[in-house]
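Good morning,

Attaching, inline, the backbone tokens for the sequence recovery test we're adding to the shared suite. The designed sequence is right after.
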């Protein structure tokens, strides 16, 4: 499964502050009071916990997107605290105790802990740290959210001859083949090349090329901090490309500030090179054949790429690309292809 990781992507954590020195007031000792000001940028919250003076701290968090969240809790190496730290569901009206989602026991022999749990966009969560014995200063930081990879809606769907799977449904495809293939950013619609979404969308909308229709832009009107951009309605840090400082070996290339070996037929990389796949459907077209391959834009496939079918003479050319599928044409009939299914895209 492809995983896209957003480090320090803004789950927000409220920080509880102590009262005046002469008469300390613990304002985050229960979940209902964990509503003080929240941090919205790089997470680095600190606090102090003590079995005699400040036994329990609660802090509130809100998830801006769905995925798997990871929260890091650290203490000084020689801390004297034993207890536990955990994440709980938001306190519902009338409830006295929130539902526990995940927790870790704290011991004097360990200074760092990670709490991992699935989050839902817009849902609030509570962080709790409790001292059984001793005390220590603590830090809550290094927060990250892993966004789950979208699933192929056509996985396991079988279509009849003359049909293709789109968005999980079998649709007629004979009229969708444009000859010659569409260029200049145009899409094949009902056998003709057309500008996506009729040539443009209204303010506050974006063009969904897979649906060929205008949809609501989740980033419209949203402002992000310096160094961030809006993706799917959430502000995320913009990756800064840096050189490899000339440290790559003679047989390596610098890719995203990492030294990588060039692609081979057995080990393609993001820099290019052969991509292995298989045919999922054949459509006869006179002495030619239209083939559908289980590789799409998420694997780097683009219109105009060429490739070959194992054991079949000649090469095919990619004419349309979707997220998880692509369409190609080859100048041999379906009988010549036969049972050969393995393909290589150059």
């Amino acid at each position: 499964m492809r995983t896209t990781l957003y480090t320090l992507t803004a789950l927000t954590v409220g920080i509880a502050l102590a009262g005046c020195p002469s008469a300390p007031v613990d304002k985050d000792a229960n979940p209902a009071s964990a509503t003080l000001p929240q941090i919205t940028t790089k997470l680095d919250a600190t606090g102090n916990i003590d079995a005699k003076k400040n036994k329990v701290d609660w802090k509130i968090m809100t998830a801006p997107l769905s995925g798997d969240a990871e929260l890091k809790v650290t203490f000084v190496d020689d801390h004297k605290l034993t207890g536990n730290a955990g994440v709980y569901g938001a306190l519902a009206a009338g409830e006295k105790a929130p539902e526990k989602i995940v927790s870790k026991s704290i011991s004097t022999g360990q200074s760092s802990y990670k709490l991992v749990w699935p989050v839902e966009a817009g849902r609030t969560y509570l962080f709790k740290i409790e001292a059984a014995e001793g005390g220590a200063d603590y830090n809550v930081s290094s927060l990250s959210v892993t966004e789950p990879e979208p699933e192929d809606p056509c996985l396991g769907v079988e279509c009849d001859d003359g049909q293709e799977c789109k968005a999980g449904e079998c649709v007629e495809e004979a009229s969708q083949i444009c000859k010659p293939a569409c260029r200049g950013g145009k899409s094949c619609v009902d056998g003709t090349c057309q500008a996506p979404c009729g040539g443009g969308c209204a303010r506050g909308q974006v063009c969904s090329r897979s649906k060929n229709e205008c949809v609501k832009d989740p980033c419209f009107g949203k402002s992000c901090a310096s160094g961030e951009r809006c993706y799917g309605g959430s502000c995320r840090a913009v990756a800064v490309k840096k050189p490899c400082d000339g440290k790559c070996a003679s047989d390596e290339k610098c890719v995203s500030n990492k030294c990588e070996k060039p692609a081979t037929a057995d080990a393609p990389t993001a820099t290019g090179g052969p991509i292995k796949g298989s045919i999922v459907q054949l459509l006869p077209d006179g002495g030619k054949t239209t083939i559908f391959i289980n590789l799409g834009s998420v694997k780097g496939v683009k219109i105009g790429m060429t490739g070959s079918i194992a054991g079949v003479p000649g090469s095919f050319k990619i004419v349309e690309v979707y997220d998880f599928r692509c369409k190609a044409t080859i100048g041999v009939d379906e009988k010549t292809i036969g049972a050969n299914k393995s393909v290589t895209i150059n």
